[in-house]
Amino acid sequence: MTNISRRQFGKVAAATAALSGVSLPELSFSQSSTPGGLAFPRGFLWGCATAAYQIEGGATAGGRGPSIWDVFSHTPGKTYNGDTGDVADDSYHLYKEDVRLLRNLGVQTYRMSISWSRVFPEGKGRINPAGVDYYKRVVDELLANGITPYVTLFHWDLPQALPGGWQSRDTCHAFADYAAYITRQFSDRVHHFMTTNEFTCFTDIGYRDGRFAPGLRLPNGQANQVRHHGILAHGLGVQAIRANAHGPVQVGLAENASVCVPVIETAEHIDAARRATRDLNAPFLTTLMEGKYPESYLQREGADAPRVQPGDMQAIGSRLDFVGLNIYTPNYIRASNNPQGYTVEKRQASFPHMASDWLYIGPECIYWGVRNVCDLWHPPAIYITENGCSADDVVTPEGRIEDTDRVMYLRNHLTQLHRATAEQYPVKGYFLWSLLDNFEWVDGYSKRFGIHYVDFATEKRTPKLSAEWYRTVIARNSVV
Ligand code: PNW
Fold it and tell me: What is the reported pTM?
């Protein structure tokens, strides 16, 4: 092997891929070392991400039960323009077309989620076979096109029928039962599972701030208990997946950890950013990775600290095969003599952001997000389970969507991700958010994150410039 030329080795890899029946874009070193391009490691996985409620529509089709997002989005005043996910991209009916888009991009992987209430309309008990069949059709269509599905079990669309939602501990057990059932049904063809997506969004934003479903504003102690139920559900889910899998599976989650970028890359600020990562993620990722709540978190919350039962922390600390990071935006961290050892810099009014006003642009966040998590906790593998942006896309008279701003955002983030792979951090793949414009939660259809434009009146999909660019990146395995 040592004497094989780089070019020959590239051919061997392509031939092996062809033999295994996986259709990969043709890669060669002459391509991946294009002048100006930054080559990613061989075998790096490129993908796109979506979530069930944001793309499927078919809200009542095939026996699906309502989720808290159906109820919330139908409540006047909760979403932009009263938009709902009733129809969305109609991927419930158009999934084959979506797989075609994926195939045209040349992705090796696709991150999708399952709507819990499509499978268990009441969240537990009665199974809806039509829902299971739908996901089998989607998965089989992906596999037939050489695309590996990565499946998220919970992307915020909690079945409405579960009493008390995430305020109830019973919901954690319902989730574990659902995870066990999906694993039994799908682990013959799906080998990568993520339990939950973004703890803060479905706990704090839903139950403390009330901006997301179910729209509650609970006092601190109760909101902390909701957080605990979120991570407990994850932990019980990991155990359930492992216990029910037909063969080897990789289990992880998708978490939007707060990303801490040192304000200047000197040792003191780098240390501070690492400390801040541990502290700002205390109730979620830190606790999962360390198997216990940090002392500082318990002290800070005092009488409002979560009530923990025997066995909880063991489940929550379950070993993970990978950590998925959803990375969009940075916090800038400065070393300080204060007790926690850092401060978060305030952003100037002129700090640039994308079309969503929270989406501040700081491409180094993807490098530091990976590095801080790896330096603190050394997970065996990292995936970027989401990265992408909203932009004010318009269709030109020629029918093109010239989203040069999105290409700028993505190119800069991938350049920083390349830095992480070049430094040997174990980043295995990247899922771009998102394949399609879709239901952007409280922003409804007003914010477009897709690399394919969707005309929501006709459901017509049109590749944007960013899709053409991403296709090139994938084909060359290199940032261009
Ligand atoms: C993620 N923030 O949500 C979700 O996983 C997706 O469903 C969503 O469409 C996508 O990012 C774009 O918003 C986030 O305020 C929502 O920092 C808010 C934030 C981050 C992620």
Answer: 0.93
